[in-house]
User: Which sequence fits this backbone?
């Protein structure tokens, strides 16, 4: 029972981790909190649903939609945010809020408000293991989710540590003006972060769609939990986002299983608030030091 709760918690937490990584990737590089993150992913999920409706399988739909989501993220950053970057971060936040409402209204006009069913990327019977520990069940979709999260963590670590792109991301996130003097084009780095973040959100939306169905509000909960996981792990730490998401998922499911299902979200938020009172920058975030 406990192992199944733990596995279910890790599966749920993997969703939160992927959302948190996408949000942190954009924030770490550009300093912008993308409030439209969930609705951008939701809109691309509707596009994938359209491809499934015309006869493609869910995997083919994902492979087609991911490049489209990359272009979507690139276009949003370059043509709506970059032109006003010199004004203020508040103006860019307002743009993301406006985009959130536009995408919700547009999706409603095109596809309606009824929930749309979306098939699992990997179906079939789950893997069942029996032993002295009891019975443990692994769904194939969950295994795919864990594998994807492991790949994202590994690829991010390699890119950030051993490639010029990773060094450029670190330089721009530390100081945009100094990075320009070093010959780095911040605009390309900004676009890259939005491309990766949007693709991450789209992947989460399609992996979660079989459970949540596709609707204009399908990503609201995941985005809120992704923000929470990012705060818990540290908003300037990609590894912190991953661990924060996994921890949040485990806390929720253990509380739901052993205390109260109705209180699991409330209890997890109380734990997080308590932690942040002790360590405001999160577990893995760096403390900001300012001269006063």
Assistant:
């Amino acid at each position: 029972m406990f192992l199944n709760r733990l596995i279910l918690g890790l599966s749920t937490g993997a969703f939160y981790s992927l959302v948190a990584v996408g949000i942190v990737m954009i924030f770490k590089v550009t300093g912008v909190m993308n409030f439209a993150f969930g609705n951008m992913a939701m809109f691309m999920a509707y596009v994938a649903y359209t491809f499934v409706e015309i006869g493609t399988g869910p995997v083919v739909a994902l492979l087609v939609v991911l490049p489209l989501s990359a272009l979507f993220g690139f276009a949003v950053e370059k043509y709506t945010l970059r032109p006003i970057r010199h004004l203020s971060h508040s103006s860019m936040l307002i743009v993301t809020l406006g985009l959130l409402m536009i995408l919700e209204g547009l999706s409603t006009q095109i596809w309606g408000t009824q929930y749309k069913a979306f098939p699992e990327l990997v179906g079939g019977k789950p893997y069942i293991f029996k032993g002295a520990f009891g019975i443990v069940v692994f769904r194939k979709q969950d295994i795919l989710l864990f594998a994807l999260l492991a790949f994202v963590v590994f690829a991010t670590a390699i890119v950030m540590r051993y490639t010029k792109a990773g060094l450029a991301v670190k330089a721009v996130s530390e100081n945009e003006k100094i990075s320009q003097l070093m010959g780095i084009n911040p605009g390309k780095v900004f676009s890259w972060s939005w491309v990766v973040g949007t693709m991450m959100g789209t992947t989460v939306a399609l992996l979660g769609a079989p459970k949540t169905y596709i609707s204009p509000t399908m990503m609201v909960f995941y985005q809120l939990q992704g923000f929470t996981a990012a705060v818990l792990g540290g908003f300037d730490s990609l590894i912190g986002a991953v661990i924060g998401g996994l921890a949040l998922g485990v806390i929720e499911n253990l509380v739901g299983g052993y205390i109260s299902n109705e209180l699991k979200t409330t209890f997890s938020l109380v734990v997080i608030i308590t932690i942040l009172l002790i360590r405001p920058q999160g577990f893995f975030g760096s403390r900001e030091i300012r001269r006063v």
The first strand starts at residue 127 and ends at 131.
